[in-house]
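Quick one: structure for this chain?
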Amino acid sequence: MGDPAPLACTLAKAVMEAVTGGEDLLALARWITPELRESLHRQQSLARRRGLTPGPAHILRARVCRTSATSAEVSLVVSDGEHSRAVAMRFEDSHGRWLATVIDVL
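Got it. Here's what it folds into:
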């Protein structure tokens, strides 16, 4: 398994934009579990109802901790221009590719 950092950065940007009311999560389906997609979809729906407008997300920092040969945890600091937020992710091996099983936006 390769370094999950590039995937984590891409997912973090997309997740931050989605949970602030942005684009659809279908493009992320390949890299996240169905349960995680449902949870993010609920957050996205709430943001859209509140009338939030997403800004472009920028990764300020990413740290990877390999917990085993088949799993890794990544912590990121993501900025949307107005706020900076912490994002925590857990990745596990799924048939030779990384799959995000947990994403928490704080």
